[in-house]
Design brief:
The chain has 175 residues and is of the alpha/beta class. 37% of the residues lie in helices and 23% in strands. The chain is built from 6 helices and 9 strands. A hairpin with a 5-residue loop joins strand 1 and strand 2.
């Protein structure tokens, strides 16, 4: 994981490479403001729509994610922090949004992007990060409103299987 400091909606910077606990980062193309008319060109891009439902899926599952072992949740787009702050407040998101307006993070990880109106935007992707390493990737993410459910499913199945295996190994080494 590259060490890149990203501005957040809390007016701080976040470097995901320093995260020592399980962090979920969902990347989304862009959110629209209530007063904004979404152009037909956006709607014609497969997979572009659904950023708000995706963000709300993580909002609605936030407590359950924390109970399942996630310590931090972040959303990331290439929009500026002021634009993201409006969405965070309007949608009552309990987590911060990160801005990669300069594409540093996306380029360093070679994340999938597409161009819209002359700007690069990230394709919908979700990452699980632990101890500065990516431990799971969800791509493509569809449908967007089920994004958090996919993470919870992984936490329940895959992570619990790993934890059970480690527990058995510890019990056997104690004998």
């Amino acid at each position: 994981m590259p060490s890149i400091s990203l501005p957040s909606t809390s007016k701080t910077h976040v470097d995901l490479s320093t995260s020592q606990s399980l962090t979920v980062l969902f990347c989304y193309p862009r959110t629209g403001a209530p007063s904004e008319t979404v152009p037909d060109s956006w709607d014609s891009i497969p997979g572009a729509r659904g950023c708000t439902p995706q963000a709300c899926s993580f909002r609605d599952a936030y407590k359950e994610l924390l109970q399942a072992g996630v310590k931090q949740v972040f959303g990331l787009s290439t929009q500026d922090t002021a634009y993201q702050k409006e969405a965070k407040d309007r949608l009552n998101l309990p987590y911060e949004l990160l801005s990669d307006e300069q594409l540093e993070f996306l380029n360093a990880l070679r994340m999938p992007t597409f161009e819209w109106e002359g700007k690069a935007v990230v394709k919908r992707t979700t990452l699980a990060i632990e101890n500065g390493r990516i431990v799971r990737v969800w791509y493509p993410v569809f449908p967007p409103n089920k994004s958090a459910d996919k993470v919870l499913e992984w936490l329940r199945n895959e992570r619990s299987a790993v934890n059970n295996h480690q527990l058995r190994d510890n019990e056997q080494s104690e004998r």
